Amino acid sequence: MKTKREDSIEEDISAPIEEKEEEEEEEEEEEEEEEEEEEEEEEQEEEEIHSFL
Description:
This protein has one domain. It is 92% helix and 0% strand. The protein contains 1 helix and no strands. It is rod-shaped and about 75 Å long. By secondary structure, the chain is mainly alpha-helical. The longest helix is centred in the middle third of the chain and has 49 residues, at 4-52.
């Protein structure tokens, strides 16, 4: 059985790890959104080029 101190230490250790994981997930989502936007822009540019031809 764990003491309150041991539980507290585990919480202190796991909290920053969870925050870091959440931050990394958010960054990955932002990067994916940026990539999607870039792909859409490229597609629009290609469509514009084809419309001129």
